[in-house]
Amino acid sequence: MSDFVKFGIIGAGSAVWRYHKLGTKNNPQVKFISGYDINEKKLAKAAKYSKLEPFSKLDDFLKSDIDAVMVLVPHYLHSDIVIAVAEAGKHVICEKPMATTLEECDEMIAATKKAGIKFMIAENHRFLPAHQFIKDALERGFIGDVFLGRTYEGAYASSQFFDINDWSFTYSKGGGGVVSDQGVHKFTMLNWFLGEVDSAQCWLSKTLKSPPNKGEDTAIILLRYKCGATVTVDISSSTVHPLTNKTELHGTKGTIFEDHDWERPVKLFSSHPEAEVKGEFYSPKIEHGPFPDYYKISMGHEDAYFAECILEDKKPEFTPEEARQGVAVVLLAYLSAKNGRMTSMDELMEIYKKEGTRSILEGLGEVTQKNYENLNWD
Ligand SMILES: NC(=O)c1ccc[n+]([C@@H]2O[C@H](COP(=O)([O-])OP(=O)(O)OC[C@H]3O[C@@H](n4cnc5c(N)ncnc54)[C@H](O)[C@@H]3O)[C@@H](O)[C@H]2O)c1
Predict the structure, then answer these.
(1) What is the pTM for the complete model shown?
(2) Cβ burial, residue 290 (10 Å; 0-12/13-18/19+)
(3) In the 8-state DSSP scheme, what is residue 231?
(4) Would you say the CB of residue 35 lies under 6 angstroms from ligand 1?
(5) Among protein residues, the one whose CA lies closest to atom 34 of ligand 1
(6) What structural domains and CATH numbers belong to the chain?
(7) What is the pLDDT averaged over residues 227-253?
(8) What is the pLDDT of residues 17-55, one digit of tens each?
(9) How far apart are CA 191 and CA 215, in angstroms?
(10) Ligand 1 centre from 39 Cα, in Å?
């Protein structure tokens, strides 16, 4: 093994690839050298922009001189492609959400374990320095036992939302709408902070008149964690402001406010004796910048960490099993929307054992409030 990792990419589509590239621009351990995409035009464009060697056949790409593959394809393809990469003996990092069902996640875990390669889901919220700071503050007990939380992500609707032929936000290829696409970031982050979810209640709505194959663009999810904390997750793909996120956690010894739009993204109020500042809000200096900077920063750290795991032969701390739990919360939210009531993780597991979790994605359109008739977007 040399002192850097040679990455190839599968899927040279949207802006997300650019952020990975920009985030690792000055990292000598990460080199993106080649790419494969079924769309030759998109591949040619990315190859020119990023100086990648383009491959028109997956087999040739997988046999080429690469150490690892970054998978950036539609959600329903994550499992098949990750499995193909693992069987070719290459390390693999795959964009979120891990997959659209728990069964696909299981197959990915089994195949990557069997192949003995490194496997990590590219959940950039796990690698954002502001979130790392919060995790550390929670572990050090600075806000005590968390009992209440609120999180928000809002994003402008992209043109993909209105394109009936585009896979994203569809039930069949995207694994659902905003809950699957954006909610999974929140669920994975909150599980990391608070542990396992006990139960959820979710409302879905379409505020945009998107095609019928597209899922909800807006949702509220109430989560109850096994630790007792209750948290609201508000997410939308139709808000009118640049992409942003907020998180608020309240505990028995203090509070954390986080806002991706702030220059100093975290405010901590702590009464803990070991806290750096006690009894008043404190905003530490943390590497950060509003969108698109926090994308570049978080993806840069994520890809650097994955390369380090390969070079130093370490198991990634963010495990595929944890990423799978993020998908489980997506499916739990959808199940609750279908049930029209609070639904427990045990109920989800019953479905997983009996008919399989794909069944949860069927009929979601019928339980989604059609709110667009009340709204004037002109
Ligand atoms: N971390 C984040 O914040 C973030 C942001 C945006 C997207 N993403 C994730 O990145 C992934 C890709 O999303 P996107 O927006 O770039 O999608 P996209 O549709 O813009 O691009 C997908 C690309 O995959 C290619 N493709 C489709 N089928 C293929 C196949 N069988 N083999 C090879 N290539 C194939 C398409 O031609 C296209 O170029 C998704 O998992 C998405 O959720 C993550």
Answers:
(1) 0.97
(2) middle
(3) E
(4) no
(5) 37
(6) 5-124+296-315 (3.40.50.720), 126-291+325-370 (3.30.360.10)
(7) 97
(8) 989 999 999 999 999 999 999 999 999 999 998 899 999
(9) 24
(10) 11
